[in-house]
Design brief:
This protein is mostly helical. Helices cover about 55% and strands about 0% of the residues. Helix 2 packs across helix 4. It starts with a helix and ends with a helix.
Length: about 90
């Protein structure tokens, strides 16, 4: 039987992996930024996170098929393109 108290105790001592910006953004991170940006400019956001995984797989975010991480500049450029398409 699973002991919840042991899991909670272990969670307080386990070391977390450092995922700083130098690692870049995942496809889900790009999705969250895009969603937040669309809301900030008042444009309806109708995309799913799965669509961003597909964008990454097909090289739509940075031109590299199958990339797992994206730089800040790549994310900003890609989201700017999405906003431009949605507002023109």
């Amino acid at each position: 039987m699973i002991n919840i108290d042991r899991i909670v105790a272990a969670s307080k001592t386990v070391e977390l992996e450092d995922t700083t910006l130098e690692d870049g953004f995942t496809a889900y991170g790009v999705y969250k930024i895009a969603k937040e940006t669309f809301e900030a400019v008042g444009v309806e956001f109708e995309m799913t996170s799965q669509r961003f995984y597909n964008y990454a797989k097909n090289g739509k975010i940075n031109g590299v098929k199958g990339a797992k991480r994206f730089t800040e500049d790549e994310v900003e450029g890609f989201v700017a393109q999405l906003i431009a398409k949605a507002t023109r």
